[in-house]
Amino acid sequence: MDFAHSESTQQLIAQVHRFVHERVVPSEAIYRDQLVDTADWTQWKIPPVIEELKAEAKRLGLWNLFLPDAEHGAGLSNRDYAPIAEVTGRSFLAPEALNCSAPDTGNAEVLVKYGSAEQQQRWLAPLLAGEIRSAFAMTEPAVASSDATNMRATCEVVGDEVVLNGIKWWTSGAGDPRLGFFIFMGVTDPSASRHTQHSMVLVPADAAGIRIVRMLPVIGNLDEPHGHAEVAFDDVRLPKSAIIAGPGRGFEIAQGRLGPGRIHHCMRAIGAAERALERLCERAVQRTAFGKRLVDLGGNRDIIANARMAIDQARLLTLKAAWTLDTRGTRAALTDISAIKVIAPNVLQTIADAAMQIHGGQGVADAELHWLYAMGRVLRIADGPDEVHRHMVAKLELAKYA
Amino acid sequence: MDFAHSESTQQLIAQVHRFVHERVVPSEAIYRDQLVDTADWTQWKIPPVIEELKAEAKRLGLWNLFLPDAEHGAGLSNRDYAPIAEVTGRSFLAPEALNCSAPDTGNAEVLVKYGSAEQQQRWLAPLLAGEIRSAFAMTEPAVASSDATNMRATCEVVGDEVVLNGIKWWTSGAGDPRLGFFIFMGVTDPSASRHTQHSMVLVPADAAGIRIVRMLPVIGNLDEPHGHAEVAFDDVRLPKSAIIAGPGRGFEIAQGRLGPGRIHHCMRAIGAAERALERLCERAVQRTAFGKRLVDLGGNRDIIANARMAIDQARLLTLKAAWTLDTRGTRAALTDISAIKVIAPNVLQTIADAAMQIHGGQGVADAELHWLYAMGRVLRIADGPDEVHRHMVAKLELAKYA
Amino acid sequence: MDFAHSESTQQLIAQVHRFVHERVVPSEAIYRDQLVDTADWTQWKIPPVIEELKAEAKRLGLWNLFLPDAEHGAGLSNRDYAPIAEVTGRSFLAPEALNCSAPDTGNAEVLVKYGSAEQQQRWLAPLLAGEIRSAFAMTEPAVASSDATNMRATCEVVGDEVVLNGIKWWTSGAGDPRLGFFIFMGVTDPSASRHTQHSMVLVPADAAGIRIVRMLPVIGNLDEPHGHAEVAFDDVRLPKSAIIAGPGRGFEIAQGRLGPGRIHHCMRAIGAAERALERLCERAVQRTAFGKRLVDLGGNRDIIANARMAIDQARLLTLKAAWTLDTRGTRAALTDISAIKVIAPNVLQTIADAAMQIHGGQGVADAELHWLYAMGRVLRIADGPDEVHRHMVAKLELAKYA
Amino acid sequence: MDFAHSESTQQLIAQVHRFVHERVVPSEAIYRDQLVDTADWTQWKIPPVIEELKAEAKRLGLWNLFLPDAEHGAGLSNRDYAPIAEVTGRSFLAPEALNCSAPDTGNAEVLVKYGSAEQQQRWLAPLLAGEIRSAFAMTEPAVASSDATNMRATCEVVGDEVVLNGIKWWTSGAGDPRLGFFIFMGVTDPSASRHTQHSMVLVPADAAGIRIVRMLPVIGNLDEPHGHAEVAFDDVRLPKSAIIAGPGRGFEIAQGRLGPGRIHHCMRAIGAAERALERLCERAVQRTAFGKRLVDLGGNRDIIANARMAIDQARLLTLKAAWTLDTRGTRAALTDISAIKVIAPNVLQTIADAAMQIHGGQGVADAELHWLYAMGRVLRIADGPDEVHRHMVAKLELAKYA
Predict the structure, then answer these.
(1) Chains with ≥3 Cβ pairs under 8 A against D?
(2) Domain limits for position C95
């Protein structure tokens, strides 16, 4: 048993840490200033500073670190990338700066594993180059998406074509001016067995029949210039070759992207929780009231201790999940992956809430604290709500007593 | 001991309930549509529908119910107004529709009790008529406002004039096009005893030297068209008669508005919590996943039961605080008032969070759920953070052991 | 709405408070010294001091206050007895000293309402005189007793006799040397409708066929000299007249005793919680560590404030349940009664745990703290576990959405 | 990074697991039957079955595994012994059966590191042979022992002798008929620097002047035949050579035993928490109510999932603490050791409480559930209460902001 990262991973962590803290964090305010402040998504523009950061990260080799495929990406295992993901969670800009933001990460992995040579050349290459972005159209507004059998959108094969219909939402990045393509999931054959009904289709962003219905706010944020869209697909027609890996493999592909994606999310949440705890501690030692530093008032030290204990435990379990995924495969990691998906977002939300509280009036107006809170809050729902994951942990536990 | 409201109060509750549910709630969507959707506060306009609601409420006699003074207002005691305040908490529009929204309520009470005849005629009359609105400039950005001795803003008496200087924030309503006046609090005589240093000054909204620095977002909301402003007062000069009740009485006046104000806040929070629980239950019985209604999945019934128990307890303690304030005075009500100020906002935040969670993806994008959550979250800080009130409860408890 | 107790109730509370604090509490140590310290229940003796206290209470008229029947008892309503019950919760000896301890209270109420003249004369009279004690044999070891349809014990009518068979447990008081009778519940007619299958039977303690299987420890306490027994009833034969109110009315009788009984339990739990908070505060102001009083260390003031807030809320809801039971009947009080049955024991357990914690090593060895903790812990299970009551609260809440 | 135990550790875990489950657990009932059930500690006897288990464990080589010294013990590192300690936490008999129970473990380590050749021969040898047991007399009743400067007991050097005076309590094992010696800590030189005032003295159990004042119950348990005693040392005179490592080194020796001791405690608590979760799950799948298995009622699955998540996190952090202690020393492990000392006992208490609850009436009478609960409860106080350890975690965290 050894809790130390490998030498090379430690070096990479240090490099990423330096880049995030010396280059990315100081660019946050510039980015916010450069943003076009409007609710009209068609007016959104990409702040130039992010492209500068991307160029610099690429030059430094801090690029596509998420991609376990050594040919297209950094070739890191889950356990080696996990601590990198944590560092990127400390700034809302960092994942994009390093070309490691969702849903591009999952989409790239899908194209690496399942994409045709043509798909890889036309879409994967510019995605990994940071020239385009992508979106993932899976969740639907009218049904409980945690139950995949509810999916209503269709992608029917008609002759040489595949025809897409349906309403998707929480399609993140759909408002990004650089959007290149969607990966769309829908039902191809409702009469097939439960796990072979769905297909995934690569849809160019400019395909006819796609309409952005609205951009959804996330706890009050539109997250411009990316945006989370409700998107209508009305009779979108594409050549049959747009179906990734062929019809009926949607479920299989979806499963494959879940494990690593959840580990990325959780490690970023842990990095964000560390940032929230820093904000909390900084305030606690600097602010005074009633003649004392806040840290010497009431239960603030208990809050800080509880935060440290919660973060350290969440990190270890997430790293163990990554290690298990690497060494024993997805099945062996199921309990840990569902567990961290409950734990890490809740830890983040709790600490961000405490950081807000200790900031008093500033706390509810502070953009970073809002981002930290919202990230935790949303992750408790996205990619399976807490309830579904707790249910999975209990189910696997109870299987021991069958 | 009798837990029933008086006959007349029960009738009034029923009337307000009907108005809120039949007229105000259905107007919420209209109001949102009529809002000018911009972050530029100088462009904000009042949605016409709210003025229609106000006219109707006035006609029905559901107007200024908050004001215990029978000459200027409805003459209700705290215990009789409290359940009315709860009903108004069920819609973000209701308090304004009934001319019962903060900070107008507290400002009106101050002018009724301490205002000169001239102040009452010029400012109180149109405020109670719903023609103008008002703001309260007390909190300051650079210091812990829960400790009043920290206040830095000044209102110096210079000859016949009073001169105001300082930066205030969380001055709610400062962006409202109908704003008539501020009540400003500052230090007049730093050499006076601890509780006679401050004064309150009535400042016309168009006085020279006032500058809105920025509008503060509240968990992502600007709350247009009212807004919460950071306001600079630079050498604002007014006749000495603008000092309410004369110099040095600011602390005394501030104390007097706290008790009733906190009861209003808490009862509205409880009404909001009821609304959140309704949203939660409606979703739980309507939505299905994995072949079951959500209410039949996992711990959702426990969440509902816990919410009901928390609300009912919080309501009773708030009503008792109101009754104690009415029958035994502020000193006797101190523990209860601090207690409810901790309890009610936390109950609201917790239930709003649960309502978000059960709504899944819709939960984080829903405007009403966001409002409910933000109301609870902000109230945990506004008017004294949880920590200060818990400290007060403990202090009074420990006084028994001295 | 009026939160004040009536004049006469206030006087009675004051009297009971004086008696409990001046006479009962100082007798606790004497009682413990007089106890025969043995696990062999057949050796148990009644400490003389309790009989002295009973005589004194009777003389002072502080006797049978629980009994709403004015002829046999004090004739207090639930809302008037509730605050008395709270005071008796402050000492483990007080309920018995005032002849107000369970299960005698419920048994007496049953005999007042449903007992024959003969039963009242032979059993109720000495019970109310404090000469004998009684036990209630309902719960069974092999099944979930919160679901009454599970009951397996039988009381068959055979000719002129009723014949009892079955195993009961948690039959409290069964080890008391003064035990006069059991009230036994069993199935008389399994073919009858769901609510008319059961009967209650008055069983003299010395009836042939009764066997104490063992005394059950409660979190390590045997609660001698009363004891909680597992009791076997093997072919116990009694005249048919022993059936209270006749065959088939067991369920109806059981329902009737639940509401008041739960209010008594909860008010006593609240009194016990007040005692636990006193212990906590006394320790917090007296003990020093690291040069400070404990009250000035860490989050202890938050713990104290949270305890005060929890107790005050629980008390109000319990009083409201009592008032509702008095003025609107059992059906109207269902939500409140289930709610307090969850809330009050949990409040007690939490505060008793905190009181233990602040006492350090002494905390886990202190007999009073152990009693306070165990009382809360057991009440979370006795008379319906938390889960069943939460379920009831949720069910009634959701009925609004049917 | 590697979460797998070494091959040899895995084998050892498997062996201990088999021994505990096949031999120790089935002996628990025999042990309880053989116990002399009396509160009079002078009558206590050792149940023969434990000596049989010890003999068998010794024969199997599952003996003194705790001792990192390879000459006297198994020579395992903390990270290798930690998972063994977890397994021993699953039965109250297992630590003693494997000669790995506190306080013998800490006392043996002290004698290995600091004992003279004579002390090792006369006392360590029989202790490691399982022939005698030992006690540790440090905590005192009158003062907060978490602050070592409070210690009042003295061990003065007078000529060739050391003279012991003072009252100790929570001296565990002091009632054991096999008790061989105490290690006593007291003040030798109050004028010395803070960390060189104290000495540790090896005191034969039969030394003149030692008096057992009473045996302390632990949440209602005397833990016979070991017992936790209040012990008076009145002018106990020993040759100066009885001072371990010489005068003034008591604090240093005490510090050294803390780290490993806390890891042992926490790992045993985790093993106990696993046992509590097993009991909970077994009941949940076997018991039915209202026509369903308990596992399908209410929030029981959430409770199970939360328990699994809490245990897995606590284990990982404890293992990391052990690894850090092994590889980077005590200073580097301070945060983790304090953190686990808060976390593991609370996890155990919470799960034991939930296991009690799901067992209903049986839950509060069940000896094993009581033991599990009491173990968690006591550990929240023993060896530094939660509050002291949270304070330490916060202090180390805030040191980053100095």
Answers:
(1) A, B, C
(2) 7-115
